[in-house]
Specification:
2 domains, 3 strands, 3-stranded antiparallel sheet, Arc Repressor Mutant, subunit A, mainly alpha, 72% helix, elongated, 6 helices
C-alpha cells in the first residue's frame, strides 16, 4: 500500500508543472461557454442543412425552403437562431431578404467537421 501511495505522489509531483501550464492556457469560462453555445446551434440538422445550402450562394427564405423541402415558417425560425449566433447575415433587395454566411470561418468549421466524419 505504501508503495502505491509513493507512486501516486511521484505522479502528482511530475504533473504539477503540466497542470499549471494547462491551467494558464485554458480560455476564460465566458469564451468556453460561447463556444459551447455555438456548438449547440450546430447541433440541429435543419440549421446544418441551411448552412450547407448557403455555402453555394445567398438565398431568400422561399428558396431555402424549396431546396430543403420545408415550410418558409420553419426556415425563418431557424434563420433567426442562425442570425442570433452571427452565423448568417442578410441584405434587402426591395421586399426580398437574401441570406448568406456571415464569414468564411463557418465554411472552415464545416469542412473540418466533414473531414473528421469522413475519416
Amino acid at each position: 500500500m505504501e508503495n502505491n501511495l509513493h507512486n501516486h505522489d511521484a505522479c502528482c509531483e511530475a504533473h504539477t508543472k503540466v497542470v499549471e501550464e494547462v491551467s494558464k492556457k485554458l480560455p476564460d469560462d465566458e469564451i468556453l461557454y460561447d463556444v459551447a453555445e455555438l456548438f449547440k446551434v450546430f447541433g440541429d440538422s435543419t440549421r446544418v442543412r441551411i448552412i450547407c445550402a448557403l455555402f453555394e450562394d445567398e438565398m431568400c427564405v422561399c428558396g431555402i425552403a424549396e431546396v430543403l423541402g420545408m415550410t418558409q415558417s420553419a426556415i425563418s425560425h431557424q434563420l433567426r437562431v442562425l442570425k442570433q449566433a452571427r452565423l448568417v447575415k442578410y441584405r434587402r433587395e426591395g421586399k426580398t431578404v437574401f441570406y448568406s454566411l456571415a464569414d468564411t470561418h463557418i465554411k472552415t468549421i464545416f469542412n473540418q467537421a466533414f473531414e473528421h466524419v469522413m475519416e
